[in-house]
Amino acid sequence: MPIYVYKDRDTGERVELYLSFAEKSIREVEGVIKDKGRSLVRDFCGEHAGFRTTGGNWPMRSDAAGVHPSQCGKAYEQSVAMGVPTQFDKETGQAIFENRSQRKAFLAAKGMYDRNGGYGD
Fold first, then answer.
1. H or E, element range at 24
2. Which position among 6, 34, 87, 92 has the lowest Cβ density within 10 Å, counted as fewest Cβ atoms?
3. Each residue's pLDDT tens digit, 1-15
4. Nearest by Cα to 31 from 12, 15, 7
C-alpha cells in the first residue's frame, strides 16, 4: 500500500498516511484530506525526500537520538552545553534536527554515528 505524505495546514506537521489509491481518491477532496480533525494537504517534496536537491526531509525527527519525553528539558540543556542546541519533542522525546550539519555535529558530540546517513553526511 502506498505511503502518502501530507502537511497539516495549521501546524505544518508532516503526516504519513498508508492509503490505497481507492481510499485516497475517496478521502481527498480538492487536494485536502481530513484526518483526526486536521486538514492535510499533500506534501510532494516530503514524499520524495532523501535526494540532495530535496529539502522535504527537514526538520528531521530522530527516535535513535531521542530521549524519554520526561527527559526533554535536561537533554536540551545538555545539547546546549555540547555546543549544538537541539530541540526535543515533548510528546515523543524525538530529537529534532533542522539541517544536516546540526545532525552531524550532534551525533558526533554524543559519540554516535549514522552508517546510513549518506548524501555527504
1. helix 21-27
2. 34
3. 788 888 888 888 888
4. 7
